[in-house]
Amino acid sequence: MLKLLRKNAADYVRANIVAYFFMILIFVIGIVIGAMAVKTLPDEQKAELVGYLRVFFQGLVEPQNTAGDTQALLFGVMVSNIKVIVIMWLLGFTIVGIPFVLFMVCLRGFVIGFTVGFLVNEYIMKGLLFALVSVLPHNFLAVPAILATGVSATTFSLMLVRRNKNKANLFYNSIAYSVFCLTMLFVMVGAALVEVYVSPVFMKTVAQIIVK
Question: What element of type H or E holds 104?
């Protein structure tokens, strides 16, 4: 069973290698634009963001939040992550959804690029270390899920453009597409758990170094 799953996964990647390359390229472009956007920020906005960061770092080194606060944060992150996958899934059913899917992938890259770029620009190596522990853990799951959903949504949308006349085949393709997106949704739920329960542990340690 495991060998069959590996074979099917390998066949899927090989069949969509060009789409994955293009989707990764869009994501990297978003990261580059986000990092470059840091240089264009006015000094007033930079000072305001630095002030927010100082308050944020100070809050990290203080006693942990209550269980209620953590549950509320987890709920918010889960809703946000699930919303991304659901929107991309719905866009896959529309012929005009491809540009919006690409925009969402690029936007994710932009946010990551801006976050890392700003932290490194303001705190150099300490900022890079904090960026790694705050951005990398959950995005290790979230980014592949978003890229895979983006590829699946665009390929399914292109299939609709070709107007396959076999309604039964279209139905089964729709089910397979939906099951795949549902799987990626569960991956995003896992990313939310990592973001809320794992990343803050490392972030608190690095924040203690920064505020000293």
Answer: helix 98-161
